[in-house]
Design a protein that fits this description.
- By secondary structure, the chain is an alpha/beta fold.
- Among the domains are: 99 residues, TIM Barrel (Alpha-Beta Barrel), CATH 3.20.20.70; 39 residues, no CATH class; 32 residues, no CATH class.
- The protein is 44% helix and 17% strand.
- It has twelve helices and ten strands.
- The strands form two sheets. It has an eight-stranded parallel β-barrel with strand order 1-2-3-6-7-8-9-10, surrounded by six helices.
- Strand 2, helix 2 and strand 3 form a beta-alpha-beta unit.
- It starts with 7 loop residues before the first strand and ends with a helix.
- The protein binds 1,3-dihydroxyacetonephosphate.
- The site of 1,3-dihydroxyacetonephosphate has 14 residues, from strand 10.
Length: 261
């Protein structure tokens, strides 16, 4: 954590919770983190739970986010609604109450073919409709073992942020999520995570200048939990967490939030 960046803890509920379950969990989370200051908090339920959770979080210190949306680009223009059966557009999640959206999560890259160019398009769509993005990057185990971590993450950041002005980049949050640490119980050590976070910040300095790079929050994600959050968050360039499994238990999530406060 740094003295200048407000830590940000976000829960990625993935494909979990019905609207009824989500409203209950959101209420438990809001209660558990009530009055906790000095840290920003968000939860990201599935699409179908956004409208159920929004009124539960209204007036609390917990913000609402989504996990994805669809957008296409035609003749240089972003198309955010239309004939795309089964898809959900960015204005829809914004109107359902979301202020944030996770983009380019590794599960979307792995299972749904998402690319850095697609994430770049989605970042631009976020700013067109008034959402703020959490942009996920991270290497596979095979890439780490081949010594390619920094190169892989650098390619992702360059691709996702290509052509964006510094004042847009400054408002984005990046989540570094090593794929081998997601849902495996195998967390990156604080030193491993810090090394990559510092590399990302050096790259952001090159791309956007020092002031912008210093302002951008970089979350860590991957088996972050109530027991290991404090030592991860103690690292200079770790500005929060994107929490999967542990975000589904309000007491555990609240412990992580308090570790960030
Ligand atoms: P876990 O915390 O379950 O490892 O998931 C991390 C993650 O993918 C958050 O986006």
């Amino acid at each position: 954590m740094s003295p200048t960046r407000t830590p940000f803890i976000a829960g990625n509920w993935k494909m979990n919770t019905t609207p009824t379950e989500a409203a209950r969990l959101a209420s438990e989370v809001a209660e558990a983190v009530r009055g906790v200051a000095g840290v920003q908090v968000a939860v990201c339920p599935p699409f179908t739970s956004l409208a159920a959770v929004a009124p539960v979080l209204a007036g609390t210190n917990v913000a609402l986010g989504a996990q994805n949306f669809h957008v296409v680009e035609k003749d240089g223009k972003l198309v955010t609604s239309g004939a795309y059966t089964g898809e959900v557009g960015p204005k829809m999640i914004k109107d359902a109450g979301a202020g944030w959206c996770i983009l380019g999560h590794s599960e979307r890259r792995q299972f749904f073919g998402e690319t850095d160019a697609g994430v770049n398009r989605k970042i631009r769509a976020c700013f067109e409709v008034g959402l703020l993005p959490i942009v996920c990057v991270g290497e596979l185990l095979s890439e780490r073992e081949a010594g390619q971590t920094e190169k892989v993450v650098e390619t992702q950041v360059r691709g996702c942020f290509a052509g964006l002005p510094a004042d847009v980049a400054r408002q984005c949050v990046i989540a570094y999520e090593p794929v081998w640490a997601i849902g495996t119980g195998r967390t990156a050590t604080p030193e491993q995570a810090q090394e990559v976070h510092a590399h990302i910040r050096r790259l952001l300095t090159e791309l956007f200048g020092a002031a912008t790079a210093e302002a951008i929050r970089i979350q860590y994600g991957g088996s972050m939990n109530a027991a290991n959050a404090a030592e991860l968050l103690a690292q200079a360039d770790i500005d929060g967490g994107l929490i999967g499994g542990a975000a589904l238990k309000a007491p555990d999530f609240a412990t992580i939030v308090k570790a960030g406060a």
